[in-house]
Structure formats: C-alpha cells, structure tokens
Design brief:
Blueprint: H1 2-11, H2 18-45, H3 58-81, H4 87-114, H5 116-142, H6 148-157
Helix pairs in contact: 1-2, 2-3, 2-4, 3-4
Length: 161
C-alpha cells in the first residue's frame, strides 16, 4: 500500500521528501475523516436534533485547521525545500485540498447511516413532546375563561356604561 502511494507521488513528479508528503497527507486526510465522524456522533448524541450552523461543527473546524496545516506545508515545501512548483504539483495539492472536505462528509454520513435508528427514535420523541405541549395549550384555551381573546371580549361586553 505504501509503495503504491509513493508511486502515485512519483507520477506527480514529487522526487524529494516523498515520505514527508505521504505522512502529512495521511495525517490530514485522517483528521478530516475523523472530524466528520466526531461531528456526526455529537449530533446523534445531542439532545437537540436541529442541525448546527456549519461554522459551529467539529468537522468544519478540523477542516479549517487541516487546510491551514496543508498549505503551510505546501508553502514550506515549495519555497524552502525544492524552490519550484510545477503543474503536476499544483494538481496534487488542489486535489488534496478538495479531498479533505469530501472525507469529512463521508465520515459524517457513515455515522448518520450507522445511527439512523437512534436519530429516528429521537425525532419521534421530539414530535411526541411537541404534540403533548400543543395538546396542553389547546386544553388551556378550551377551558372556560382560558382563551385570552374571549376574556378580553367578556370584560368589554360587561363594562358598565
């Protein structure tokens, strides 16, 4: 497996520091995948089943950190180590940049599929609670003197003139 990845790097004309590129890529790709998994697990285990904004998700924060680390490495590698950049390198780095959010999405969707029954149970519980709250409110409105509009009208009608 390692030799195949190093051969892939040779196809992109990476001749120096291939092991470093492989390790950095592996760490960053794994962190993106794990970020997606952690994000989905926190969503599944939370009390609220309302999606959080993108900027508040663990996967997004890890994605930003891994993208930053990737581009710092790219800058260091091409400016200080080999002092050049060719089109094949650009293609590799752009594809690596695009792969990280894809891995986060894949990890997140795998966990959501794995825990879909738990999510459905929580959604059913949430609907049951909302229904009971609506029933309590409707009973309070239907009770004599419970409707605020009817109370206001009864005070207005019986006002001594």
């Amino acid at each position: 497996m390692t030799e195949a990845y190093l051969d892939l790097l040779k196809a992109f004309n990476f001749t120096e520091m291939q092991a470093w590129i492989a390790v950095i890529s592996l760490v960053l790709f794994t962190s993106s995948l794990l970020g997606g998994i952690l994000s989905a697990l926190t969503f599944v285990n939370s009390n609220q089943l309302q999606p959080r904004p993108l900027t508040q998700r663990i996967s997004f924060r890890l994605f930003l950190l891994s993208e930053f680390m990737l581009w710092v490495f790219v800058f260091f590698y091409h400016v200080f180590m080999i002092e050049e950049i060719i089109l094949a390198h650009i293609v590799y780095w752009v594809s690596a940049t695009m792969m990280m959010p894809l891995l986060a999405i894949i990890g997140s969707q795998l966990m959501l599929v794995a825990f879909s029954s738990k999510v459905k149970d929580k959604e059913a519980e949430l609907k049951r609670r909302a229904r009971s709250v609506r029933e309590k409110r409707s009973k309070a409105v239907e009770a004599p003197g419970g409707n605020p509009a009817e109370r206001a009208m009864s005070r207005r009608v019986h006002k001594p003139g």
